Amino acid sequence: MPRTACSLSACAALALAVLTASGPALGQGAPVSDVMRVARPAGGEYFGLYMLGRKVGYSHISLDYVPGGKDKVRFQDMAVIRANVGGRVVERRSTDTRVYESRPGGRLLSFVIEHHGDGGDQVLEGTATPTGVTVIRKRPGLPNEILTLKPSREVVEDADQVRVALLQKRTVSGIVLDATDLQNYRVTTTVLPPMEAAPGGAKVTLQRTSTISEKEQVPVECSLAPDGKVMEIKFSTQMLARAEPEAVAKRLDTVELFGLVRVVLPKDPPASARTVPGKMTMVMSKLPARFARDNERQKFRKLPRDQVEVTITAQPPRAEKRRARPLADPAGGENLKSTLAVESDKREVKELAKKVVGDEKDAYAAAEKISRWVHQNVESVYGFSADRTTDVMRQMKGDCTEHALLAVSLLRAIGIPAKRVDGVIYQKLGDGVPALMWHEWIAAYVGEWVHLDPTWGQPVADATHFAVGEETNAEIALLIGELQVTDVR
Predict the structure, then answer these.
(1) Residue 351 belongs to what domain range?
(2) Which of 127, 128, 259, 274 is most buried by a 10 A CB count?
């Protein structure tokens, strides 16, 4: 299956569990991977990318032998996303090119991952050997960085894992290197029963698969025509990629993103929901059970007719729970880790964190200082996204994601476990309609978890913040266009 749409919505790269040790170089008459035996359109495939019925982007996927022989295979996944965000038209373009040995189970040899436009420019050039992966990270105006990763278990079948799974008629599972964070994740694909359809009026039987990644936990369903052409890729009932001719795929709608994905409320929340301490209760429908889990702020109660009641409570951390920094991470270290995006181990990040916090040892007081500093010094403006901490520090402007990314990086740099929180928050657009808008804020562990909002300058995020995910994962895609609120009080 093409990986394009999956990578665009951060759903998942695909993988296959055909993991074999390196063998002899491919010679004349040597066996070739099943990935080169399946039928697919010549010259690659174009897709239009749709959200809630509106086209927000397009993608192109191709896979073929590297010119000059048949011992190597090249896979390329290009995608463009464009939308109106806060009055600005923003565009993000990404290209992922990977080269593999063409034999069965052939290993990943190299890759070039490019990101341009919204989110910042970056090129990652990777070389994979049996002993490890070396990545050169290139960004405009900065010295190149050298990153060293563990050996990759990715194989050539990962380049089109859905078609291979259909050919082999079995469930497959494996490990793939993610293009956004360079971490390895297990992905499993299941062959689904075929389905009758009539695209263009002609009745055909479509082959189908479902792929799920341990990173995103979002099932991705792919449908293929009898000739091997991918017809449609579904990420949820409201998000899909549809096969289209190149000229059609590149014709995009003018989409105002905030208005498109908001959750309309039946009325305004009570004033008490916007105070601290404060509380808000909502009755929701179409909220999957996986999102209705009690935590430090949110308590759920099942109601008749598949509805659920959630009560959100906002309060400062209890005095008896507050601790001095540095603290151990209750999650085992994940919330203290420096990553490709959260660059908390960078010298300039550590220096800024120390400057902002000074000698403050109380973890919550230090977290409050950092959140307030980010609120006061990062200009709130849409259309200036940056996917990495040092990029945020250079431009010092952006929306909620930039505020949250910088705050979390500064917190981790001084030994306070922290994570980004994805969810919705009460807000009105120019039309005055009360709604929940998609938003990102942070949670810091200061002896207990406390939520802060550096974008809105809230030392404790008020009770209109309803959390559904963490660390910008694509799991929230299941809720876009589906979640409904029938009561708020």
Answers:
(1) 271-488
(2) 128
